[in-house]
Amino acid sequence: MNEMFKRLQEASARLVLYDNMPDVILTEGGIQLNQYVASCSLGGIACNMTHDFCKLFHPYYLNCFTYRDRKMLPEATCNLSLSDPRNVIPEDDQPWLMSSLDNGLSLVVLTGSGMLEKTDGMVAEDLLPGLYDAGGATAGSDGVRVIIHPHDVLPIPFAEGFDVPPGFTASLGVRPRRNKRIGPPHGDCIDNDPFLSSSDFAYRPVVCQQRCLQQHVLEKCHCYDTSLPLPNIDPLDAPTCRTLDFPLECKIAELDTNEQCIETLLKRYKRVRCAKLHRERVLMDRAEMQRCGCRPACKELIYDVSFSMSRWPAPGFEGNAVYDDIFNVQRFRERFKDSETIRRLFNQTGDRTKALQDFARINVYVADPEVGTVHNV
Q1: Who contacts 69 (Cβ-Cβ below 8 Å, separation ≥6)?
Q2: Residue 42: beta bridge partners?
Q3: Can you give the residue range of the structural domain that contains 253?
Q4: 3-class DSSP state for residue 36?
């Protein structure tokens, strides 16, 4: 029992460092764009890595990157505001995109999946500690999470998207569809999120439902879940459900039977457990979800996506060509400067097949350039 508590104590000392870190530190410590995207092109023309991507922070995935084509939004910024006319595209002025796979967006990304392995007595769990949710839909997932969405919406990685495993190429064909619904008094659609007084993003029922779950967590557990968007509250008014207020003596002393240390761990566990249980309860209660008031949007642009996958890269000549493009043409190895991990995994005399096993290729293209409009009564 004492040995078990000691291991839990040591893990929790690392957890408090991770969970209480400001987002800016986690952002700086997370993978950067030039270390994540090995190559990028649109219609065969190289992307502008400085201007074409926005970096967004997510508490689970940490650094996320959004591609926003400058031809569509010439002066777009990462801090989207729908009140800024530069970020609003009139319906009759949408850019025309030719359909075909070779005219789409193609990226080669480093998943990093195999980079966390046992080395010199240190295992992967020592690098980035955190809680493992054995019942979570994304727990233990390998690869890259991809979301195809309009520029003016808030993406929700846990509620939408596709998983691309390492060692594969995924092709996503996009068919845009615009829905228009009749509002009150003849219809029940809405344009604004009932959980917000104002928003820089277009209203979507899926985001509203996520805020509804957050509201229930706040009311029942007196903390908020960092994986859910916030309603109209100040985050400082409530702690995160994963906050660990570990007393100093628990971090620096071996107090295997200290009741205060054990109680702190139990409180944290209870908050996390409470958030999980109430999210599950609300999701299973249809009437409770309906009381959220997350009715359909009066206007929304939806991307219907078809998904196909194949092994990548092919062995032999094509595999060698991919390796040369990533490490010699794109000079990917040099982006990590003096990283010992990179020198070990991507050394010039090493196994090329092993070096490529942590990469994936993602192709996104327009399958149908015509935007269909559906009018719902």
Answers
A1: 42, 52, 105
A2: 45, 105
A3: 1-17+190-295
A4: helix
Give dist(CA 227, CA 242) in Å, integer. 11
Mark residue 161 as left, alpha or beta (left: phi above 0; alpha: psi -120 to 50; beta: remaining).
left
Residue 355 within a domain: no
Residue 232 lies in a domain: yes
Residue at token pair 């319906």: 91
Instruction: Read off the tokens for 129.
Output: 């500690």
CB neighbour list of residue 232: distance below 8 Å, 6 or more residues apart: 195, 196, 197
Residue written as tokens 């966390």? 116
Quote the strand ranges of the chain, DSSP E.
Answer: 37-42, 45-46, 53-58, 62-67, 105-110, 144-146, 162-164, 168-181, 299-311, 359-366, 372-376
Is 216 part of a structural domain of the chain?
yes
CB 33 within 8 A of CB 51: no
Q: Is residue 3 in a domain?
A: yes
pLDDT digits (tens, 9 = 90+) for 300-333: 999 999 999 999 998 888 888 999 999 989 989 8
Question: Residue 309: beta bridge partners?
Answer: 170
How many domains, in total, are found in the chain?
Answer: 1
Token pair in block for residue 334: 């040099």
- Per-residue pLDDT tens over the stretch 269-312: 888 889 989 998 998 998 988 899 999 999 999 999 999 999 99
Q: Are 37 and 121 in contact (CB under 8 A)?
A: no
The verdict on pTM exceeding 0.70 is yes
